[in-house]
Write a structure and sequence with these properties.
38% helix; 2 domains; Rossmann fold; 15 helices; 7-stranded parallel β-sheet; 375 residues; alpha/beta; 6-stranded parallel β-sheet
Length: 375
Amino acid sequence: MGSVCRRILRFLSLILPSRKNRWVFIHSEKHWHGNLRTLYDSACRDERISPCIIVTGADSVENLKALYQNRAEIFDVSGLKKYWVIPTSSAVVVSHYGNSDIHHNVINVWHGIPLKAIGILTPERTRKFKRKLRRFSSLVSSSPLDRSVMSAAFGLPPDRVIPTGLPRNDILHPNFTLPTDLKALDDSLLDDLSGKKLALFAPTFRDHRKRKKITPFTKEQVATLVDVLGRMGYSLGVRGHHTSDDMELPENTSIVDCSSSRFPEMQILLRRTDLLITDYSGCFFDFLLRDRPMVSFAHDYFDYVEGRGFTYDFRTVFPGPICTDFQQLIDILPTLVDDNHDQHYAEKRAIIRDLIVGSTDGGASKRVIEQILSQ
C-alpha cells in the first residue's frame, strides 16, 4: 500500500464507527504461517471475534479461500473493499515492520524472539523508520525479558509491549490439535523419516551478504554428515530461511526436503525434530520448548557479527555446543544424544527457556486475544 492509501485508511479509521468484533489480519508474506496464522485460527474459534484477512504479499486470495473452504472473509489489497473493511475494524493485526500507520489500533505479533539485532537496534535506521515503529498500538513479546528487548527495538514504552508468549509456539504444545492442512504435512514428514529421528539443519537469513549465497558444506561434507547421522538413527532435514533461498547445498538423495515451499509452517518441523543443527537462527528459542539437544555450526561467526550483530550475546544464550569448523561438528554430534553428556546443556536449556521464552502452557494465542479485546 502506498503512503497516500495508508493515510486515507488511518483518517477513515478515526472518523468511521468501528465494528467491535471485527479484526483485520494483514497477510504480507508468500506463505500463511507463524504467529499471524495461529492467532487468526484461534480468533476464528472465538465467537466474540469476526476476523478477516487482507492479502498484500505474494500469496493469493484463492489459496487461502481453498484452505478455509470459503468459510473466511478474504480480500486482495488491490480492491476497493479495504477502504471500508480496514477503517471500520476495531483492530488490525500485522507481523512485520510495515502498516503501522493504516489504522489507529495496529497490533504487531512479530515473527519470533530476536536473536539478531532488529528495529532501531540495527545501525543506520532513518528517523522515518523509527517513527513508523513507534506507531504500533501494541507489540507481542514472549516473556518479560523479551518484552524489554522488543521495547528497545521498536522504541515503544514497555506498557505497550505485552509478554503473552508467541502464538505460533502453541503448535509445539503436546495437546495442540493440528488443522487439517498442517496434519497432512506432519504425516508427510513422518513418511519421509521412515521411522528415523529428524536432525534438522536450519540456518538463518543472511541479509547482510547482499544476496551472496552461503555454502556451509561441501559435497563430501554433506555425505559425511548424512552418514554420521544415519549411524545415529537420524535423517538429515534441511531448512533454509523462509524469506530467501540464500543457501547452496550439494544434492544428496538422503536429505529430507524441509524447505518452506513444502513446509510453510516451521513449527511442524520443530514438533518432529530431535536434534537441531543451526547457526544463529532464533528458531532455537522456540525449540527450547521441545527440550531436545542442539548445536550451532558457526562457520562464519565473525563475519556475521560484523555484518548483522546480535540482540543477546550469542555465546551466553545458546544452550549447546558452538562449532566453528566441520570436524568439530562431526565430533560433537554423537555426544549430543548421550544423556550424561547432555545434562549440562539440559540445565542451560531450562534456564534460557524460563528467562527468554517464558510460558510453556500453549495458551499464547488466547492471551493475545484477551489483551486485544480488553483494549
